[in-house]
Amino acid sequence: MKNICFYFQIHQPISLKRYRFFEIGQDHYYYDDFQTEQRIRHLVEKAYLPSNKVLSEMIRSSNGKFKCAFSISGVALEQLEQYAPEVIDSFKELAKTGSVEFLTEPYAHSLSSIFNASELELQVKKHAELIESLFGKKPTAFRNAEMIYNDEIGEIISKLGYKTILIDEARQVFGWKSPNYVYNHSYLPKVKLLVRNNKLSDDISFRFSNQQWNAYPLTANKFIDWIISMPENEKIINVWMGYEALGVFQAAETGIYDFFRALPFNAIEQKVSFMLPSEVSKKFDSAGAIVAPYPISWHGNEKDISAWTGNDLQQEALNKLYAVSERVHLCNDRPLQHDWLMLQSTDHFRYMSHKDCYGSPYESPYDAFTNYMNVLADFLERVEAQYPTTIENEELNELLKTINHQEKEIQDLEIEVKKLKARKTQTNTSTSN
What mean pLDDT comes out for the span 204-220? Predict the structure, then answer.
């Protein structure tokens, strides 16, 4: 039997305002709230709410047989909670169906997996806690920002308890291998790797409404026929895309929602089922190990990380940002820590790219770099004011160890207090009886 694993990504950065050089040290608020709200409301009305409604109908009409997964960055969730809480409510309703899985990723949709492993771990934990608090279930599968992956990242994520990782079909890693199998980490066989089927995913995301495409028009029946015609032993087809594909990249007028509504009926008729990433990982054995010594992503034809790190502008911004990671985590300044997360979103660095700055609000990569570095200069001054660079990193590390040790002691004491209270309550109950 063939199985389709649908997954949708939602991430939107908080827009930075035009921040001038003379504002450094004077203005500590970096964001264009109007632009951010305008963009979020547009996406909510065109994509998120109508798409959630359609998916809910699909789940209901198929008696729960249609299933799909989401990864929503912490940055996006914050914006939705502020500007469109009704979307959060609609996702909670989807969660109640049991047919939707929420994945975890770095909270800030950041490049921490490349630049700072400790930061990656903190953000994954923070994001997992938010997902569990909102949707009632702890995530068990991981999808990195921009689907960035290599062996080292896989090992870090494994140590955090995740045994399912979503990655892209990058030819420099897969070669002749088909994406329609489950694979495993190169030296951690228990870590399952699920692979995006690039062609089928992009057929929906980008080619669906293209009348020059030789497969136009794409119908649900045709799509399912493609899947059942695949080799018999290729049993899992991962169709993953940004959620904006529904309603924005492919507007409602293109028939995209009619296509999705028809999918469950056509799939069930042809004995094709839908599965969640965690289900796929549990059900299917690995077809072999994937060796990924260098980072891959789901971006462009190269499937590398050059869109965010490929030029000197990006490297300078990223190195200066992550150089202060330890100092930021030592402070208790909540606005500073929040800014730290918001400034890590991958989008800020892609806007500095000479090869792909799609969706950039700036006139040029240099304009994006200048604006970001002005903001970063002010941010670094605030960090410097709390933990000057005259303090050596070794001193900072010792201080951080002390703080972490104290936090653990406090946690242990709180657990002990709870146990004593429970014991006292039990004793009083027994005495009264």
Answer: 97
| Nearest one of 144, 173, 146, 142 to 158, comparing CA atoms | 142
- Residue 317 near residue 376, CB atoms below 8 Å: yes
Number of residues assigned to the chain: 433
Q: Residue 356 pLDDT > 80, yes or no?
A: no
3 state SS of 185 = strand
pLDDT at site 321: 97
Kindly report the backbone phi and psi dihedral angles of residue 132, in degrees, each rounded to the nearest multiple of 5, phi listed first: -65, -40
Angle at 327 between CA 325 and CA 333, to 5 degrees: 105
Tokens of 368: 């994006």
Residue pLDDT, tens place only, 49-106: 999 999 999 999 999 999 999 999 999 999 999 999 999 999 999 999 999 999 999 9
> Is 311 exposed, middle or buried, given 0-12, 13-18 or 19+ CB atoms closer than 10 A?
middle
Listed in sequence order, the residues at least 6 apart from 263 whose beta carbon sits closer than 8 Å to its beta carbon are 58, 66, 220, 223, 224
Cβ atoms within 10 Å, residue 393: 12
Evaluate the CA torsion angle 297, 303, 306, 308 in order and state its sign: negative
- Reading the block at residue 339, the tokens are 């800014």
The mean pLDDT value for 236-249 works out to 97
CATH level 3 topology of 3-290: 7-stranded beta/alpha barrel (3.20.110)
* Distance, C-alpha 421 to centroid of its chain: 40
What is the predicted pLDDT for the residue at 418? 72
Strand pairing class (273-274; 3-10): parallel
Q: State the Cα–Cα distance between residues 87 and 3, nearest whole angstrom.
A: 28
On whether the CB atoms of residues 192 and 281 are closer than 8 A, the answer is yes
Kindly indicate the confidence band of residue 369, based on its pLDDT and cuts at 50, 70 and 90: very high
The rounded distance, in Å, linking the Cα atoms of 217 and 213 is: 8
Q: How far apart are the first and last CA of the chain?
A: 60
Domain boundaries defined on the chain: 3-290
3-class DSSP state for residue 32?
Answer: coil
> What local confidence, expressed as pLDDT, does residue 263 receive?
97
Predicted confidence at residue 420, as pLDDT, reads 75
Q: Could you tell me the two tokens for 5?
A: 């694993």
* Model pLDDT, residue 153: 98
- 429, amino acid identity: T
**Other residues' Cβ atoms within 10 Å of the Cβ of residue 195:** 24
Closest CA to 197 of 225, 157, 247, 238: 238
